[in-house]
Amino acid sequence: MVVASPASIIGSEKIIEDIELPVIDVSIGDRSELSNLIVGACEKYGFFKVINHRVSNEIISKMEQESLSFFAKPFPEKELAGPANPFGYGCKNIGFNGDIGEVEYLVLNSHPLSISQRSKSISNDPNKFSSAVSGYIEAVREVACEILDLMAEGLGVPDTSVFSRLISDVDSDSIIRLNHYPPSYSTNRVGFGEHSDPQILTLLRSNDVGGLQISLNDGAWVPVSPDPTGFCVNVGDVLQAMTNGRFVSVRHRAVTNSYNSRMSMAYFAAPPLDTEIAALPHMVSAARPTLYRPFTWADYKKAAYSLRLGDARLDLFRKQGDELA
Ligand SMILES: C=C1C[C@]23C[C@@]1(O)CC[C@H]2[C@@]12CC[C@H](O)[C@@](C)(C(=O)O1)[C@H]2[C@@H]3C(=O)O
Ligand SMILES: O=C(O)CCC(=O)C(=O)O
Ligand SMILES: [Fe+2]
């Protein structure tokens, strides 16, 4: 039996308020400047904010409205869309290994057919729900593809669609997660504990209530100021492996706000299950040998789901001593 540990109270950790995280205006015309800014942010923080993207307000507010309506339902009705195994509605329990947090959520596979089937247990107007979710996914996927192409260009990789091809594949294993963190009234609490995202890239949009924090290497936490008009973008473990550690899959967490509800929606861009993940040849040299053994996305997902939220999954695939050649 797995015993859940209580969601912790935010206490004595070091919180650094005065670091300016990179904000990237993707509407600027100069592609080479844009790709250099993105590469710099991914190397230093594994994280940046995107503004002036092309996802319309209409698409975002339709999605937000559906999310609000779902979380506003009485608990027994929401439970009909659960349990999250891993898709569906979950409350407080995260994953299968005893992690808990002050959050309720809905995780959906990104395929329109799967959304449409599941929407029957989620919404009183399933067609409206599935059209809002599919429209949102299509629009954020386009932004994600554009960002991934700019990354490849900035890294000098000859095949500039090497990353975006994986997430635009019809069999891509991308998912969407809607999170709702109710106010905690007294002390701030951990809503979604420290972790890295397993996939290639995450695009997260939230309402105007803060809570997201990213971890610096020394254990200090940097709060990310909320901006409902932009996206927070972070590198996932697969992109760290494909760039041979040049980009970092940043550890992050979400804490509750004392007075207001935080709502976030995260799109996790992933490759098809049978994709073999290995460092791109361009990222490997004598001075920078391959860090990870090749694995398929299916292998990686299996490992991720067998571990706790905060475990360093990628370390399982790290080459040791004489394997480093
Ligand atoms: C504890 C877990 C929840 C998670 C699967 C895992 O075993 C480890 C990774 C977790 C995570 C983090 C990013 C995403 O929110 C998520 C959907 C994912 O792909 O990996 C969650 C998983 C989950 O909640 O099912
Ligand atoms: O809600 C947030 O700000 C973070 C959520 C998150 O990290 C996740 O869903 O993986
Ligand atoms: Fe995350």
TrEMBL record:
Species this chain originates from: Hevea brasiliensis
Residues annotated as domain Fe2OG dioxygenase: 171-271
Keyword Ubl conjugation in annotation: no
GO molecular function (one): gibberellin 2-beta-dioxygenase activity
EC number: 1.14.11.13
Top EC class of this enzyme: oxidoreductase
Pathway this chain belongs to: Hormone biosynthesis; Plant hormone biosynthesis; gibberellin biosynthesis
Protein name in the entry: gibberellin 2beta-dioxygenase
Reaction(s) catalysed (UniProt annotation): gibberellin A1 + 2-oxoglutarate + O2 = gibberellin A8 + succinate + CO2
PROSITE patterns: FE2OG_OXY (PS51471)
Lineage: superkingdom: Eukaryota
Gene Ontology BP, a term: gibberellin metabolic process
Iron among keywords: yes
Family stated for the protein in its record: Belongs to the iron/ascorbate-dependent oxidoreductase family. GA2OX subfamily.
Record keywords, A-Z: Dioxygenase, Iron, Metal-binding, Oxidoreductase
UniProt-listed Pfam families: 2OG-FeII_Oxy, DIOX_N
Gene3D superfamilies for this protein: B-lactam Antibiotic, Isopenicillin N Synthase, Chain
Cross-referenced PANTHER family: 2-OXOGLUTARATE (2OG) AND FE(II)-DEPENDENT OXYGENASE SUPERFAMILY PROTEIN-RELATED (PTHR47990)
